[in-house]
Each structure stands twice: as C-alpha cells, then as structure tokens.
Write a structure and sequence with these properties.
The protein is mainly β. 13% of the residues lie in helices and 40% in strands. It has four domains: 139 residues, Immunoglobulin-like, CATH 2.60.40.2550; 144 residues, Immunoglobulin-like, CATH 2.60.40; 59 residues, no CATH class; 62 residues, no CATH class. It contains five helices and 23 strands. The strands form five sheets. Strands 9, 10, 11, 12, 14 and 17 form a six-stranded antiparallel sheet that branches. It has a five-stranded mixed sheet with strand order 13-19-18-15-16, with no helix packed on it. Strands 1-6-3-2 form a four-stranded antiparallel sheet, with no helix packed on it. Helix 1 packs parallel to helix 3 and helix 4 packs antiparallel against helix 5.
Length: 453
C-alpha cells in the first residue's frame, strides 16, 4: 500500500436527508465506498460510513464503538484494522444524532473486503455489521474509463477550504453513505471522474458526450440530461445533481455514461439510491419505499443467508432457486425483505412470530452439532406452533422412545409421531395424519394412544 490509512470525522450536515425518519429507538450504521484512479496501476479507495441515532435516551457526547477492517482476500492478509470511538453529537430539533467518517487509502489490483462492526456499549461484542467484497483493477486503457459514482448530500464548488477532509478538485464533496434522499434533502448530487479521454482520439479537439439519467425499477427513464465536453484533457471531473422531490418513494438507479461519438464507444457506471418523499404511513403497497428503514437494509450477508435458510420451510421452489442465483449481498437483502413484506401484508406479525419459533426450536430441539430448527420437531414447531397435547414416552420397554404431538385445529385434528431411533434423543418424524406430511400406515397404532405426559 502506498499510503497510510486515513481515518477522520466529518460533521453533522452529512446526512440531513435522514429526517425522512426511522422509528424511535433505532441506531443505524451505513457504509459505502467509491474507487478512483490513483495512477496507471493502483486505485484510490474512499470508504464512507455514518451513524444515525434516534434513540430517546441519546445524550450529548455519548460514545459508539466501531471495529473497521480491510482485508486482501487474495492472501487473507489484514491491510488495516482500526478500533474507532465515535462521539455522538447532541440530538438536533428533530431528535437526531448523526456522525460520519471517511477513510482513504491506495490499493493495487486485487480482491478485497471491507467490514465495519458496531459494538455494544462495552465494546466487546458486535450488535451490527456491514461487509462489502469488491475488486480493484487498473484504470490504464486505450479507451475511456470512468470511476465509481459517488452519491453526495452536497457538493460545494470553488471551495477555499483546500485542507478540508472532503476537498478534491477545487470542490468539497460530501458523501451520503445512506443513499437515501428526499424531503429535507431533495437534491441528489453525484461525482465521478473520467479517464483516458485523449488517448488515440481521432479528433483531439473534438467533443465527448455525457449522459446522466434516473431510472425506476422497471428501467424506465424518469429524468435525464445530456451535454458535451471538450476532450482536450486526459481526464475530467463530472458533477451534477437531480431534484428528486417529485419522485415516489422507492428504489431508483442513477446511470452516468460517457460517449465518444466518433468511435461510438461508451463507458458508464450505475448506482442505486432510495427516495423517501412521504411519511411512513403513506408508503402504501410499495415494498421498496420503506426498505431503507428496514433491518435488512444494511444487514450482513451471513445474517441474511441464515434468515432465508431458516425461512425455507415456507419458501416456494421458485424463491429457493432465485435466492441461490443472487450474487450480491444488496440483492439478497432486498429479496429477503420483500419475501417477508409480501407475506406480512396478509398476515401482519408473521415474520416476528416465525423467527420467535425458530429461536425456540433451536434452543429446545438441538441435537449434537445440528441446529434445533433443522430437526423434524423444529420444523413442525416452526410451521404449526406448539402442539395442543404432547404425549411423551421417553422410557418404553416395548418400543423406542417417542413423542406424539396433537393439533386440534389442523385438518380437524392432526397428529405427529416422532421416534428416537438411536436412543440419544434424536427424534425423527415417522408418521403424521396431516395431509401433505409423511404418513406410514404401520405407525397407526401409536395414534390410538390417549393421554398427555
């Protein structure tokens, strides 16, 4: 690495858009990054993170503990590791307390992972985590290349503050790692860099075209702008903004493309963002409108994977196949969020009840190193809840230990027979009278036994 990792704090104006609101009692952590050219080989990496706290008990100068790491995944070396203590400011008139920071470094081409953990008040255990896997490649090319798009809460041109943390290319560029815009922050600012403009240009005095557009989830263009720039410089900085005050709540994509009209070659990049222009009660049936306020918005990939694996008992075959095909953690988050959003429209509270059952099953039916929710009893408990009657025969001279669970309201009365075939309390489902479950006629004699133990 050519430079020392730089970690600095920024001030409260970073995410004014967060007045769009989260429920009281929540602490949210956000992480984003952008890659720019450092030289022909290496990449200049900027990592942006912010904290948003709307807990009623927040007091001025309260502390939040973060654990940051940057890992080279090619050889699993830790390039940087930092324990960060953030002093939260006194909440403003809206009841918010916000802090954010910027981390800068230079990386050679390779595969990397950045991870941020939010620790408990003692600084000993993680209560929240965000992880991103990414690549860096050389920007050296005979054709035009563009950097990542940095989404910003504000860009101040011709700034005299050359020593400021966010100063670059005569501007102060304030990142918005939440990617949320709307209401108190209706202007979406963006920043990107364009490279290799003059290389092999047939007309060095000619022009290149810049196209910027906002698209909805269906790919429809809602806002766009197009203009020309002189190509007499090797690189350019492109900044712009869109007023998104009239956009509905939801997920959108910003696309910026640079086109060489002579060769018809184009280079482009895209970045997703969220709009929250209405109070939460006005979101209606659009699931992505309130996705930024959900627990899934910055959930770690490991937790998202666990959540969906635990939900497999009620997932369709198509949903299982689709989830397997998802490559990015962002798509996984949105998929699992919408998975539960759709179901809770018909059964409010279903998700909370489901995972409460998962936790109980994991605690009560664990066997050896197998999770309790993966057991037969765990599956039945998660799907149907606690039985109305549970007949237990743990010690029986005439047969293996078994349990019979009875549900009065399933198909007018249904029973499940679990047998401990090994004698080590590993109960397996041997038969059930519920339609759709496995039924073994030879086990019918067990279902004639009455009583509860």
């Amino acid at each position: 690495m050519k430079s020392t990792l730089r970690i600095c704090c920024l001030f409260l104006v970073l995410i004014g858009c967060m007045q769009t609101g989260f429920a009281n009692g929540e602490m949210k952590m956000y992480l984003d990054f952008a890659r720019f050219r450092y030289d022909d080989t290496d990449t200049y990496l900027e990592i942006y993170y912010s904290l948003y706290d709307q807990r009623n008990e927040v007091v001025e100068n309260s502390e939040v503990f973060l654990d940051f790491s940057l890992v080279n995944e090619n050889d699993q070396t830790v390039l940087a590791s930092e324990r960060i203590t953030v002093q939260m400011e006194k909440p403003d008139a809206s009841g918010q307390a916000v802090r954010g920071s910027l981390i800068k470094t230079v990386l050679p081409p390779g595969d990397y992972m950045i991870k941020m953990l939010r620790l408990n008040e003692a600084g000993t255990a993680s209560v929240d985590s965000i992880k991103y896997d990414f690549k860096t490649t050389s920007f050296k090319d005979e054709k035009i290349k563009v950097s990542d798009i940095e989404l910003c809460s504000n860009i101040r041109s011709n700034s005299p503050n050359k020593e400021g943390l966010f100063y670059k290319n005569t501007m102060e560029v304030y990142p918005n790692p939440t990617r949320i815009f709307g209401m108190s922050n209706p202007q979406l600012f963006y920043y990107l860099e364009v490279y290799n403009i003059t290389k092999h240009a047939s007309d060095p005095e000619g022009m290149i075209e810049v196209h910027a557009a906002i698209k909805d989830k269906q790919g429809n263009t809602l806002e766009q702008k197009r203009y020309q720039r002189n190509r007499n410089s090797e690189s350019l900085v492109e900044v712009g903004r869109f007023n998104i005050a009239k956009l509905d709540n939801g997920l959108y994509t910003l696309m910026v493309a640079v086109v060489d009209p002579v060769s018809e070659y184009s280079a482009f990049n895209i970045s997703n963002f969220y709009v929250v222009n209405k109070a939460q009660s006005g979101f209606g049936d659009d699931p992505m409108a309130i996705f930024p306020q959900s627990e899934y918005y910055n959930m770690s990939e490991d937790v998202v994977d666990d959540r969906f694996e635990q939900a497999k008992y009620i997932a369709t075959k198509t949903e299982l196949l689709v989830y397997e095909s998802l490559a990015s953690v962002e798509n996984k988050r949105m998929f699992v969020y919408k998975f539960w959003f759709d179901r809770e429209r018909e059964t409010p509270g279903l998700q909370e009840e489901y995972y409460t059952r998962v936790a109980y099953a994991d605690d009560q039916f664990r066997f050896s190193n197998r999770d309790g929710w993966k057991s037969d009893r765990g599956r039945v408990y998660i799907l149907y809840g606690a039985p109305d009657h549970n007949l237990r025969r743990p010690n029986n001279l005439n047969s293996e230990p078994y349990e019979i669970w009875t549900y009065h309201n399933l198909d007018g009365g249904a029973k499940f027979l679990f047998v401990d075939e090994t004698g080590f309390k590993d109960y397996r489902l041997r038969s059930s009278t519920l339609r759709g479950e496995f039924y073994d006629p030879s086990m019918e004699i067990y279902f004639t036994e009455d009583g509860v133990q």
